[in-house]
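Hi C.,

You asked whether I'd gotten around to modeling the 313-residue construct. I have! Everything is below, sequence then structure, no commentary in between.
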Amino acid sequence: MQDILINWAPQETRVAIVENGAVQELHVERALERGLVGNIYTGRVARVLPGMQSAFIDIGLERAAFLHVADVHVAGAPARGEGPNGAPPPPIERLVYEGQTLMVQVIKDPIGTKGARLSTQMSIAGRLLVFLPQDDHIGISQKIGSHELREQLRARMNALARVAEGSGPAGGFILRTNAEEASDAELADDIAYLRKTWAAVRERGFKSPPGTLLHQDLSLVQRVLRDLANDQTHAIRIDSRLQYEALKAFGEAFTPTAVARLELYKGERPIFDLFNIDDEIQRALARRVDLKSGGYLIIDQTEAMTTIDVNTG
């Protein structure tokens, strides 16, 4: 059995997974370091550049974002950068025009003086699947085993996707590597979650002006319910009442099987003191790591490399 402890602060969120009193995983997310990749916006076409086969899109950021013709979704296109039946995509000036409102997704963060790179081909990641709302095929991660296993997974997904179609828009899916041993119930839950998420994004998109953020990848606190909680989780404890209420509402809407394990921690001691987690973190990050055998490691990090010296003691 495992416990998940969430230490929340406005600037930083820390999540520890504890099994049998020992820290097994630590996840940290800092508010100022969250990227834009995966965010979905309502954008306005500011300028079309036929010579570059690109367009600048205003999505409400400091710099206009960049959309290349290869990243424009064309109905019936089987892959990025291809038109229907494998033909070259139409020129950018036939696909978008100045002043047009588009739903776009960030696929590359802004860097230096360059704005973010965009796509009109949407994808939303779940725990086991990636949802492709504008597509209709079932893809399998290249890291998943044999041809026979891949075909079995594809057949199962086709059946599950058909069953679930009444609950939302159709669309295609890509099975992530960690879906290799997933049950039908787990896959069905992820299908329902992703379709519900996309339906909410579409509804906001119809009502929102250009420059509106329609969807952002889940915060670390929310990913605890979606990605980290499982059948072995005994309790999920969080030390912020505000985040507890928000996480409870999110869980009831999207992950009802996990929200039952959610608890608000009210103790006087900091939540990470329960299992001496801060001490565990310090030991894990120390230059010297003592081994049970009596030996020890010395870890030194430089700009060019990280060296590990193994000593027998």
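If it helps when you're writing up: The radius of gyration is 23 Å.

Thanks,
B.
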